[in-house]
Each structure stands twice: as structure tokens, then as C-alpha cells.
């Protein structure tokens, strides 16, 4: 039904009217005092969200651009890096590192499983010559709905003493606790169409002082993604290139909404929605794809054993105007994913579970009694 | 006065309500059939605007990102290139080329003067070994309001036989004729906040078949700006990374408006506005900064001899809510620039001239009789 679509994908996520309206203003000059005020305010808000006193820089681009910027601004050709890979985004950072001629050691886990922090500790402890310059990993692996133990892995990196932690927090930031400073993260990359409750188009990269030291020796070629000019202009509440001015308006409004809700409340909401989505799926007899205890607070991947996930997903869209995400790459048809990231309330999660359950039964694919899923989800939301 | 600002800067340019409203919709999934339809339609529209049958790819980023993409996707480390430099953007492409280790020969002209096509012909004819891989230049130099003779320079490049023409058409495309195919341009880069009548955030890079051949041998490292995946996904009406979905909505609406107006009519409008701005300034005794006959159809730079350009510019903003652009770098205070690019009608130009004239006289800086400027501008608009 026209204009009735509800997004329950891991991005773009739903956008509040307040944010859409802020974005819909006429643009202003990006070198004007009025725009500088927006940059100043959003910079403070971004520091709040990242729980950091570091620079948080804004790039017009996707989350991949921010993550690439983090990598190419802190490393040099031939540098040894350790990349975690347990999904499509882990794979992507390996590709980026290789594209720039880095010497990449990959620590893998099966899709659906978390990265093993001990594997990182072992690699870092074995590196007595301190050749490893960075550990690159994904916090919330969007393709599999797995959350990796970034805190522990980052602690191992700190113990190493030389390496930086470069973290893809694209679907974790704003959904769960990512205290950049207290975890000692060096680069945190994220994107606007996720926990930020904004349309896509802006991405964010926070850089620690250690990361800036590494920037000084970095020799990888870059221009648009060279973070030096971003830092220099950010100090004057400006940008090196014309930024997406209207998305900045949206950013200011969205972060204001997040500050009003409060960080703890946001994280609790995401945890509650994860619990409800997981409980609902389990009660319908639909197995979760992520290993127990490692489900992402942003997204629940479901592997509906013996059921065509694409058929189910399409039927949910056609009948209920709810867009779920499909499986990526080899998971296509085997997995569907429920996004519960950003501007999502209890009603949305309850509705998604009910729509999935109803569709399952209408396709004669129900494995448990109609209503079991909804009951379990409701109970999880109430608890 | 709040919400009364009129932008007469070379970007962001004014945005029609139709475009703002299209942008203000709730985002949809970027992998959905509905979004594929938007990509398909805008791709056709972009080909129309570029007068080409080539690929026109959409990047979430600024015009600089598009231009950098054009350079790094067609060249290899150590390649010899010739860069035209007669302003801030010419300078920028020299910097980009050097950042990637290209061997750069710079052909300069003074700021305010056009590039000399013969200088390019001479350099290309002297290159009997065909070492020059590309000629990189800016069509409309935004910093100085000069339009370079891209058509003639491109013809010299074609005569060379090997080199590509990589053109920054950021403030020329949509303002004046840039027939990519008939001029034999290989890379055309542009940005949304210019002739496109859109907010900033999207940029565009069109690539000829010759450019794609060069892509195959290009060895410069890239990932977010690697155009190969953009081409591959564009063939399926999709994108390699999450694009700025809402800006795509705006793009579709803006290009529809442009198609309705018609290309000739758009170009004539820009030419008329250039004539009016130039006539108005001259009649007020304010010298134009660009050499005679080389004024850009997008922007008129004025060097108000003996008058503080920043003082005038600020007074026009304070009194009339019209934002003019200042001079960049060493031109700050010496030059102001009137943007007449994109969604600008005769009323806007007439008003800008009147506001500048009125401000000039109120500051007791008038050099001619009050009304002379307006009369000249009106006459130019009528002719």
C-alpha cells in the first residue's frame, strides 16, 4: 500500500518526522556562521554519542567511506594488520586493507559465530617484534546479526602496546554501549542510516590521539578521505568539502532526540527489542542464525530451516508492508533479518513478530501454534 | 530575517519546493525494486543531461570525490598528466594528482584569465612518445568565475590520440552546453548542489569507453571510489554502497524539472543571467574579475576596486538576506561572487543587482548614479 512501508532492515532505518522535517529546510551556505553553529553543535552531540573527547569527523559518504578513511589515514603500505572476518563486512575490511597493499592476517570465524578474542590475543602476543599496526574488526556484523566482543579484543590490542583498534561500529553505535575512550578504541566508524535514525548519506569517523600519531606516518594516498583537512576545518566548525548540508540539519535533530531519550534508555530499548525478536522467532520454531548469546542488539538473523526465507520475506512485505532484510551472498534464501535498529518502538517489534507469524501460517509453514511467537515476544517486551 | 535567505552563491544553490518535498519522503530500502526504479530513471535522466550514451555513476560525496574518482580510476602511479590551473579548483586537481604520485605538468593561467588552449596543444604535440595519459582541467572555475574553452582543449586531446580528457564540470553542467560525446570528453565530474538544483551530497562521474579501457590498467589504490563496482551495480540499477536514498528522490524530481524546462532553455537562461549580472556590475562601475568574454554562465566574480568586498557582501546579507560568495584564498576581501546557477529566475538576478546597488549607495560607495546598474541589468534581461 502506497506510503505504508515500515522499514525493518538494518539500514536505511525508519526516520522520525522531526528529523525529516529538519532535513527538508532550504539549504544554507556551508561557509556561513549559521552553518558553523550547526557543525559546532553536532560535533558536541557526536562526542556525547561516542563517549569520547576525541575528534569525531563527518564525511559525506557511506559507512564504508568512514571505515576506509580510518584504515588509510592510520596505516602505510606494507603495514601488518590483523582483520577479523566473520561476515560480509569483515570480508569487506580485508578487501580494503588488501586494496591498499597492507599485509593482512585474517582471523576468521564461521558466519553466525562470533570472533574469538583469544585468537586476537594469541596473534598479538606472538607479535614480539610489534609489527602489527592495527586490528580491524566489525562490532555488530550486519550480515549475520552477530555482535563481536569488541571490548575484550580492544583490551588485548591495548596490551600489545603498538597496534591500533579500528572498529566498524556502523550497526552498534547508538544501539549498544560503545564507550570509545574507556574501551581504548582508536578509530570508530559509523553511518547515518543506522542508530542515528537518519537517512543515509553521512558517515562518521572518530579518531584517538594515537590514531592521529599514526596519521603522521601514514603514506597511503588519499584526498577526499584524507582526515587531516577534516580535523583542521572541524576545529573551525567547518568542512574541507561541501558537506550534505540538509543531512547535517537531520543529524542535529536526530542527536537531539537521542540526547532527550538518554543513552541508557536507548541501549535498554535495543536490548529489549533483541530479546523480543529472538523470543518470538524461537517460539515459532524458527532458529536464530547467530550463536546463542551473540545476537546483535540491532538485528536478528533468522535461518528458517526448510523454509524459503525469500518467499517468507516477500510475503511479509506484500501482505503487511513490512520490509525485512534478506540473506546476503551465500545466505540468500536461507536467512532473513529483522532490523530493530534506531527509531524502533515496542509496537514495531511486536508487529513484525505478529506479521511474520501470520504469514508463516498463511503459507502453511507454521511449526507451532499461531500466537506462540507473539506471546513470547510480548512476554519479553514486558519483562 | 529568519527563513528569508536567498542563496546566490555557487553552491549550495537554491532548491525548488518540488525537490525539497521529494527529498523529504521516508527513505525506502536501497535494495528494493522501488528504489531500483528510481536508479533506472535517474540514470536515463543523467545521460540526457550529459548528452551521452556512456555510464553516468552516482557517488554519495562531494564534487571533489567525483573528480578524484575520475582521476584515480583511469591512471596509474607515475603516469604523466597535464593539469590546467587557473584558480582554486585547478589547484586542487594538481594536488589530487600529486597525492597519488602522478607526474604532473601544470599549465597555468593567472586567476581571472582563461587557460590557453594553445598551451595544451603545444604540450600534447610535443609529446611524440605519447607519455601523457590525461589532461585534467576545470570547465567553469568557480573561484574566479572564468569559463575555460573545454571544447577546444578536448579537441587537442583527441588529436593526441592517447590522452584522456578529465573535466571538472561541477559548475558548468546544467548551466551551459557540455555535450560529453560530441566533444569527446572521457570523464565528466559534477555535484548535486550546483546546476542540478539539489542540496549537496551526491556527485556524478560519467566515463567514456576509453576511460573504462584506462580503468583496466589503473593501479591506484581505491575502494569507496573504485568505479568498477559502481558500473557493475548500475547495470542492475543498484549501488555498491548504501547511497543517499533521499537525495536520489531529489535527483529524480530535479532532473524531471530540468527535462520539462528543456536544455536549450536552461542554457539560455544562464546566459541571460550572466549578461544581466555583468551589465549591472559594469554599469555600477564595478569591474568584473574574469577576463572579457570568459565569464562563467554560473557565476560572476566582481573585483570592486577600492571597496572592501567583504564589507559589501555582509551588508547585502544583513540588509537584503541575499547571500553572495566571498573571494577565496588571496582574493578574500578583493572579490565577491554572484552565483546565478541552477534554480535562479530573472527576478533573482534583478533583485541581486538592485540589492548590491542599493547597498553600495547606502555605504556611500556608489560610483555611478543609483539605478544605473539596475537599468543595465534589466535591459540585458529584456534583450
Q: What structural keywords apply?
A:
13 strands, 16% strand, alpha/beta, Aspartate Aminotransferase, domain 2, four-stranded mixed β-sheet, homodimer, 44% helix, 383 residues, seven-stranded mixed β-sheet, Aspartate Aminotransferase, domain 1, 2 domains
Please specify the SSE layout and strand pairing:
The structure is a homodimer of 383-residue chains.
Chain A: E1 6-8, H1 17-23, H2 33-50, E2 55-60, H3 63-72, E3 80-85, H4 88-99, E4 103-108, H5 117-126, E5 132-138, E6 140-141, E7 146-147, H6 150-160, E8 164-168, H7 180-183, E9 187-191, E10 202-207, H8 209-217, H9 227-234, H10 245-261, H11 263-283, E11 299-302, H12 309-320, E12 322-326, E13 336-339, H13 346-362, H14 372-382
Parallel strand pairs in A: 1-12, 3-4, 3-5, 5-8, 8-9
Antiparallel strand pairs in A: 2-10, 6-7, 9-10, 11-13, 12-13
Structural account:
- The structure is a homodimer of 383-residue chains.
- The first copy, chain A, contains 14 helices and 13 strands.
- In chain A, 44% of the residues lie in helices and 16% in strands.
- The model of chain A has no long low-confidence stretch (mean pLDDT 98).
- In chain A, the strands form 3 sheets. Chain A has a 7-stranded mixed beta sheet, with helices on both faces. In chain A, strands 1-12-13-11 form a 4-stranded mixed beta sheet. Chain A has a two-stranded antiparallel ribbon with strand order 6-7.
- In chain A, β8, α7 (180-183) and β9 (187-191) form a beta-alpha-beta unit.
- Chain A is globular.
- The first copy, chain A, has helices at 17-23, 33-50, 63-72, 88-99, 117-126, 150-160, 180-183, 209-217, 227-234, 245-261, 263-283, 309-320, 346-362, 372-382, and strands at 6-8, 55-60, 80-85, 103-108, 132-138, 140-141, 146-147, 164-168, 187-191, 202-207, 299-302, 322-326, 336-339.
- Chains A and B meet through α1, α3, α4, α10 and β12 of A and α1, α3, α4, α10 and β12 of B.
Amino acid at each position: 500500500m502506497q506510503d505504508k512501508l515500515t522499514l525493518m532492515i538494518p539500514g536505511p532505518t525508519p526516520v522520525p518526522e522531526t528529523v525529516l522535517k529538519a532535513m527538508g529546510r532550504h539549504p544554507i551556505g556551508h561557509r556561513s556562521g549559521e552553518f558553523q553553529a550547526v557543525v559546532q553543535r553536532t560535533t558536541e552531540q557526536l562526542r556525547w554519542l561516542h563517549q569520547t573527547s576525541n575528534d569525531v569527523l563527518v564525511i559525506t559518504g557511506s559507512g564504508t567511506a568512514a571505515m576506509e578513511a580510518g584504515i588509510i589515514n592510520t596505516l602505510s603500505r606494507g603495514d601488518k594488520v590483523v582483520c577479523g572476518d566473520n561476515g560480509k563486512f569483515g570480508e569487506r575490511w580485508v578487501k580494503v586493507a588488501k586494496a591498499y597493499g597492507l599485509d593482512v592476517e585474517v582471523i576468521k570465524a564461521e558466519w553466525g559465530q562470533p570472533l574469538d578474542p583469544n585468537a586476537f590475543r594469541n596473534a598479538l602476543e606472538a607479535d614480539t617484534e610489534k609489527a602489527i599496526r592495527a586490528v580491524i574488526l566489525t562490532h555488530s556484523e550486519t550480515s549475520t546479526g552477530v555482535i563481536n566482543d569488541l571490548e575484550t579484543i580492544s583490551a588485548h590490542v591495548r596490551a600489545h602496546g603498538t597496534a591500533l583498534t579500528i572498529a566498524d561500529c556502523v550497526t552498534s553505535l547508538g544501539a549498544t554501549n560503545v564507550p570509545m575512550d574507556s574501551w581504548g578504541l582508536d578509530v570508530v566508524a559509523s553511518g547515518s542510516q543506522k542508530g542515528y535514525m537518519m537517512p543515509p548519506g553521512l558517515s562518521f569517523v572518530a579518531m584517538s590521539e594515537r590514531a592521529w600519531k599514526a596519521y603522521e606516518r601514514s603514506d597511503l594516498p588519499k584526498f577526499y578521505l584524507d582526515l587531516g583537512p577534516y580535523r583542521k576545518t572541524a576545529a573551525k566548525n567547518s568542512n574541507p568539502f561541501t558537506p550534505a548540508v540538509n543531512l547535517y540539519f537531520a543529524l542535529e535533530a536526530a542527536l537531539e532526540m537521542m540526547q532527550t531519550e538518554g543513552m541508557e534508555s536507548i541501549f535498554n530499548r535495543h536490548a529489549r527489542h533483541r530479546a523480543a525478536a529472538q523470543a518470538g522467532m524461537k517460539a515459532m520454531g524458527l532458529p536464530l542464525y547467530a550463536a546463542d548469546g551473540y545476537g546483535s542488539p540491532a538485528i536478528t538473523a533468522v535461518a528458517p530451516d526448510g523454509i524459503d526465507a525469500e518467499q517468507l520475506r516477500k510475503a511479509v512485505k506484500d501482505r503487511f508492508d513490512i520490509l525485512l532484510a534478506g540473506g546476503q551472498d551465500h545466505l540468500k534464501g536461507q536467512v532473513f533479518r529483522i532490523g530493530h535498529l534506531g527509531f524502533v518502538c515496542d509496537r514495531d517489534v511486536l508487529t513484525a513478530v505478529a506479521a511474520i507469524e501470520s504469514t508463516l501460517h498463511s503459507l502453511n509453514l507454521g511449526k507451532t501454534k499461531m500466537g506462540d511467537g507473539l506471546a513470547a515476544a510480548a512476554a519479553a517486551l514486558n519483562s
